């Protein structure tokens, strides 16, 4: 196991590697600025103490003496170094911000790549990976805690160490190397203590993530509009406020303990060593016995230099915590990347790997004896599940809540891999297909489909990346999903942002959003997807609208391999084939007519639901009703 100093060095090197993503002129400019910023106080020290050394001669020689002119020049130079420092500081802040921004853009790219390149979602659902991902996202939002910010902050140390080295050289030359060693050691002991404290604190709070999340929810998320509505009608607002205070105090006490352990004793000890170092150096300057007896100018110079040298032990607001938090964020990101990398390595779908080519489904999709249990769950959702779907036909999967319908879809999409058995696409084991290419063959609308705070056109265009900019294709897909009319009537038509969080934006009703999601899937089919999946796509539509929609939809997509999932038995009767799922098993299988003749579960549920919601057996009429 590497020592903590080796680890710290490696951590810093990892941060510096991020600088490769930043433009070279910005990095070079920033380094030069830092050196200049560090050299400015040393120059001030030299000029101002030289000026002090000239005061007596200048006073004696009068205003026209050479000493007087030298004094004037030295004072101008000292003032100039101060001005240069003042001017450089904001320029450096701009350069640092530029670097941070560029590096963080790359961090975001890595974060998205890690998130989307996992072949399935099982890896992202592991609690540790989920927590690491959430922490990375939270840190990236706090601009003070990003890896890019940390790497930029590393550069600010150049100024600090330039000033430190300059001061040490001054002490060594003007007084003695021993004095320089004493002042330098004293300063560095405190510096190392600061760095360790910052690292220890940022590491310690990583373990408090659950507490922090709860605190964050109680104190801020409780202010969200959705919770605000419930807090009013149920009257739990005051409870939430009291709880936030009480738990906030508990969290504060816990942090106080951590902080006092890290910051009190070690800092008292380090500060004592620093004070001793400074005392030894200054004693040499003051007492002739130790080599002192210096002129006024040199004494001023040495005193300033010793103070500047031990000043390396101060807390640097611009770097210490920024570096520690940025490193923590980077570690979290690397955890996610490692987990995703392992998940990828466990599949055969690496580019150039042994994956079989993927094309449109032409023959069939077959579940062969599939068994599946969610990671960490005790009970299997599917055991020995078999089903064959002929290409170009439509299948409705119906069943009560929790029957396993969505799980089937997730397995088909390869979000998870079966524990036993296999899924065969046109005779090829799906596990041998490139997962991402296979996923592009699927146009799916899930229950929790995306509502993007972007334009209506983009919301639909996302169905097929290559058709995003093709407005005709987008509008055609919208028309087929029954969304075109109301989208055209929005203030900026298809360009309207579908979110009230943005100026000129608007929100849609639940049913309108569903049609947008369906249009997205329709566009995916236009873009080449050959399997269309609708997983409870119409839950926000009333039951008659749902039945009409699915009828129309199956008509429109005739010839496309389609799977419709629903717990409403009365809405899928037009599918070529209906399977009833219960407890992860197919309990009935046939056409609507066959299942009605069978007089089993389907017939019973269909009759109950159709009667309750007055859904006509075929076609139109009937009242709208609520679900179940
Ligand atoms: N990510 C998960 N981790 C653990 N268990 C899960 C997960 N997702 C679903 N389950 C469980 O698997 C079982 C089947 O769930 P599934 O979502 O497939 O049912 P469903 O038939 O689609 O239900 P619904 O009609 O309510 O959508 C349920 O018992 C559910 O609790």
Structural commentary:
The chain folds into 3 domains: 12-345, ABC transporter type 1, transmembrane domain (ABC transporter transmembrane region fold); 360-441 and 532-620, Rossmann fold; 449-529, 3-Layer(aba) Sandwich (Rossmann fold), CATH 3.40.50.300. It contains 22 helices and 10 strands. The strands form 2 sheets. Strands 6-7-8-3-9-10 form a 6-stranded mixed β-sheet. The chain has a 4-stranded antiparallel β-sheet with strand order 2-1-4-5, with helices on one face. Helix 1 (4-18) packs across helix 6 (147-174). A hairpin with a 2-residue loop joins strand 9 (577-582) and strand 10 (585-590). It has helices at 4-18, 24-61, 66-117, 122-125, 127-141, 147-174, 177-206, 209-219, 225-234, 237-263, 265-286, 296-310, 320-345, 405-412, 435-440, 456-461, 471-480, 484-488, 510-526, 543-556, 592-598, 601-612, and strands spanning 364-372, 382-390, 394-398, 420-425, 428-429, 442-445, 531-535, 561-566, 577-582, 585-590. Bound molecules: adenosine-5'-triphosphate (ATP). Adenosine-5'-triphosphate (ATP) binds next to helix 14. InterPro entries: AAA+_ATPase (IPR003593), ABC_transporter-like_ATP-bd (IPR003439), ABC_transporter-like_CS (IPR017871), P-loop_NTPase (IPR027417), Type_1_exporter (IPR039421). One of its GO terms (molecular function) is ATP binding. Keywords: ATP-binding, Membrane, Nucleotide-binding, Transmembrane, Transmembrane helix. The chain crosses the membrane at residues 73-95, 164-190, 262-287.
């Amino acid at each position: 196991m590497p020592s903590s100093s080796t680890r710290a060095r490696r951590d810093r090197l990892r941060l510096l590697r991020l600088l490769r993503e930043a433009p070279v002129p910005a990095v070079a400019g920033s380094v030069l600025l830092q050196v200049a910023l560090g050299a400015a106080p040393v120059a001030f020290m030299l000029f101002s103490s030289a000026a002090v050394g000239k005061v007596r001669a200048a006073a004696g020689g009068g205003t026209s003496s050479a000493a007087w002119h030298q004094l004037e020049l030295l004072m101008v130079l000292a003032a100039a170094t101060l001005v240069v420092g003042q001017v450089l500081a904001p320029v450096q802040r701009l350069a640092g911000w530029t670097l941070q921004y560029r590096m963080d853009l790359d961090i975001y790219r890595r974060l998205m790549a890690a998130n989307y390149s996992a072949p399935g979602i099982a890896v992202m659902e592991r609690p540790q990976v989920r927590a690491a991902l959430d922490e990375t996202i939270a840190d990236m939002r706090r601009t003070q805690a990003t890896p890019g910010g940390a790497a930029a902050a590393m550069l600010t140390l150049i100024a600090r160490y330039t000033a430190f080295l300059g001061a040490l050289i001054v002490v060594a030359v003007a007084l003695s190397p021993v004095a320089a060693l004493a002042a330098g050691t004293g300063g560095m002991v405190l510096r190392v203590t600061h760095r360790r404290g910052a690292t220890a604190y940022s590491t310690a709070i990583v373990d408090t993530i659950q507490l922090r999340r709860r605190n964050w929810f109680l104190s801020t998320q409780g202010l969200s509009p959705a919770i605000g509505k419930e807090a009013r009608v149920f009257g739990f607002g005051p409870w939430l406020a009291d709880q936030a205070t009480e738990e906030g105090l508990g969290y504060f006490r816990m942090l106080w303990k951590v902080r006092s352990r890290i910051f009190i004793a070690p800092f008292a000890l380090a500060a004592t060593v620093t004070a001793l170092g400074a005392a030894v150096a200054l004693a040499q300057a003051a007492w002739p016995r130790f080599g002192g007896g210096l002129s006024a100018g040199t004494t001023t110079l040495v005193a300033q230099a010793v103070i500047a040298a031990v000043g390396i032990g101060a807390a640097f607001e611009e770097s210490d915590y920024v570096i520690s938090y940025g490193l923590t964020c980077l570690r979290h990101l690397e955890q996610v990347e490692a987990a995703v990398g392992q998940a990828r390595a466990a599949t055969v779908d690496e580019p150039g790997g042994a994956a079989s080519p993927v094309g449109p489904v032409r023959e069939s999709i077959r579940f062969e004896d599939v068994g599946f249990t969610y990671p960490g769950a005790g009970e299997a959702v599917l055991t020995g599940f078999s089903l064959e779907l002929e290409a170009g036909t439509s299948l409705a999967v119906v069943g009560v809540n929790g029957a396993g319908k969505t799980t089937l879809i997730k397995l088909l999409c390869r979000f998870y891999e079966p524990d036993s058995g296999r899924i065969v696409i046109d005779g090829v084991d799906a596990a041998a297909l490139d997962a991402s290419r296979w996923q592009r063959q699927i146009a799916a609308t899930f229950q929790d489909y995306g509502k993007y705070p972007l334009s209506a056109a983009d919301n639909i265009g996302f169905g097929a990346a290559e058709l995003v900019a093709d407005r005709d294709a987008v509008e055609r897909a919208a028309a087929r999903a029954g969304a075109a009319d109301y989208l055209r009537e929005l203030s900026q038509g298809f360009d309207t942002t579908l979110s009230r969080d943005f100026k000129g934006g608007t929100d849609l009703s639940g049913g309108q959003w569903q049609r947008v999601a369906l249009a997205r899937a329709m566009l995916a089919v236009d873009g080449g997807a050959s399997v269309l999946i609708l997983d409870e796509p119409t839950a926000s539509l009333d039951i008659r609208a749902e039945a009409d929609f699915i009828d129309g939809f199956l008509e429109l997509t005739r010839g496309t391999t389609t799977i419709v999932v629903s717990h409403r038995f009365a809405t899928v009767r037009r599918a070529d084939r209906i399977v009833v799922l219960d407890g992860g098993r197919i309990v009935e299988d046939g056409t609507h007519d066959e299942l009605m003749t069978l007089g089993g579960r389907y017939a019973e549920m269909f009759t109950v639901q159709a009667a309750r919601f007055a859904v006509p057996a075929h076609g139109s009429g009937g009242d709208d009703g609520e679900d179940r």
